[in-house]
Amino acid sequence: MRSPTLITRYLTVEWSHSVSQIAPLKMAAVTHFILPDLPQAVAEGDRKAWRESTILTRRIRTMKQGVDKILIVGGNEKDQGLISTTKAIQVATEVTDVPVWCVANPNDRESFASLESKAHSGASGVVTQPLLCSHAIDVFNSYKEAGLHCVAGIAFPKSVEGLHFWLKLLGQPDLVKDEVFQSHIAHFDGGKSSLDWAKAQVAHLAGTDSLHFMPMRNSLDLKNLLSDRKLLKVAEKQ
After folding, report:
1. Is the CB of residue 10 less than 8 Å from the CB of residue 68?
2. Distance spanning both ends of the chain, measured CA to CA
3. Residue 118: which of 137, 92, 95, 98 has the closest Cα?
4. The pLDDT of residue 196
5. Virtual torsion, Cα 213, 234, 3, 137, nearest 10 deg
6. From 3.40.50.970, 3.20.20.220, 2.40.10.10, 3.40.50.300, which CATH number describes the 5-228 domain?
7. In Å, how far are 21, 45, 159, 203 from 49, measured between CA atoms?
8. Are the CB atoms for 11 and 222 separated by under 8 Å?
9. Which regions of the chain are under pLDDT 50?
């Protein structure tokens, strides 16, 4: 029997309209909801719904508005000449006592140097992209050397197309050749369920004490996974 993943720090969910439709009781174990506060992706109505459906102490947002953590997310600063995420973290820590977190991509072998720089600038935690390739777990484990709270991301693709969506999002098309990524493709090509895939990712991260779920529109698998007490064991909150 697989050992359950014992969550002792954080069990977070990326908030979306579909996530908001899940009964709160089904997500009682979730410690924080993360709102991707991007004008191009999140409408004002969604932000309003997020504020109304999540209590203050369970919020992580990219702006300080009654939250207990700030998450600094980059991605478009190179194209628009904006400040780097490292600089943004430095500025944020100078003007607020709210803990500042950052993001990282463990599928990128070179990502530790960037994460270390963010830690030196004041970040106290990191939420990662989903671990999709053979070296990602080793890279993720190296993040702990930076002294941050490390929260491992888990995606919820429903098909091979969903897997390729993540490669496009990460900007790493060459990962399609990776042995582990090929096994993900084989899972869906073999007609196996998306819920079983998500459960396998949780089991693979059994040594990790914090997880971040990114269901996108696949809230059904999220709800069912959170209900699986044999797989997921959440420590009592202190």
Report:
1. no
2. 28
3. 92
4. 96
5. 40
6. 3.20.20.220
7. 11, 6, 29, 32
8. no
9. 1, 77, 237-238
Q: Which of 119, 216, 127 is nearest to 166 (CA)?
A: 216
For residue 163, the model assigns a pLDDT of 96
Domain ranges of the chain: 5-228
Quick check: 3 and 206 in contact, CB under 8 A? yes
Partnered with residue 70 across adjacent β-strands are 61, 100
Predicted pLDDT of residue 5: 63
Beta carbons within 10 angstroms of residue 232's beta carbon: 19
CA 146 to chain centre: 18
Give dist(CA 24, CA 99) in Å, integer. Answer: 26
Scan for tokens 């720090």, then name that residue. Answer: 9
Q: What pLDDT, in 10s, does the model give residues 159-204?
A: 999 999 999 999 999 999 999 999 999 999 999 999 999 999 999 9
Helix (H, G, I), strand (E, B) or coil at 77: helix
